[in-house]
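pinning this so it doesn't scroll away 📌
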Amino acid sequence: MDANAAARNAARQRWAEKDAKFRSDSLKFWNRETSAQRGFQRAATGFSRGISDDYQKALYVQGKSRQVYQQGFIKYLKAKETVDEGGRARRRTTGIRALMRAKGKLEQAEKSAFGVQMQRRYRGRLLKLQSVQSEVRNKLGLAPEYGSPVMMPPTDRLSGALSIASQIVGIASGLGVGNGDGILW
């Protein structure tokens, strides 16, 4: 007979409850993990599309700039109306200075679109990506921990045997079994 049987059964019950809770929390965490993975992928896709849109915008500015320069060059050639054979210019207002000024402004707009503005947009999109990733990580939370072990009390068969022996001695002494000195044999 085990004197600690009830305590051992209670420990087994506590372990079963703890294990069931851990498995339930693990499943919930796994579900949050899959949704977090989708969140990270969505954030990366948004970041990539944003960068692509910015590059497309810069290419559009470059194309418009070249188109405006082309129109200005055609206008310059039409205004010139003569073939330049390399001699001394008879007319001082050929329009080349205005064309060069316009070309400089257009090149500056291209540099700005591909340089400073693109970098500014990139930094903004990077910060947005990092904030979304941070939100996803916060929603994910911490993984469940199994926790400290449930202590199982030892088996105590000796006290059960001693209890039985003392009951036998009590019964025997009540019946008057023995040699009169209180010794059974």
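📌 and the second one:
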Amino acid sequence: MKNDQLTTETRKGVTATLSSKKIKWGGIIAIVVIFLLFFHISPDKLLIFPKESPSFSNTFFFQSDIDKLIERYNNAKFLERIEISQDPFFKKLGEKGLIVRQ
């Protein structure tokens, strides 16, 4: 009978430990997701800067993404250029010196 009680108590302890580990990992994942909502990250340039508003848009960007944006801007007509230049991400890249207008 004693062995059965120890086994049951051990199972409860293991279950509690597993659930607390799940809660810890869930908390870590939630913090990472929240962080990703508020920052742009460039692994190429080792650069992190805040977003204008929380979103997953352009969370991770690379030099190729900047090149595509510049190409899109250069090929755009006048009104499209104005629209692109009003984009908060485009403005932030200009502030950081990653895009330079000539």
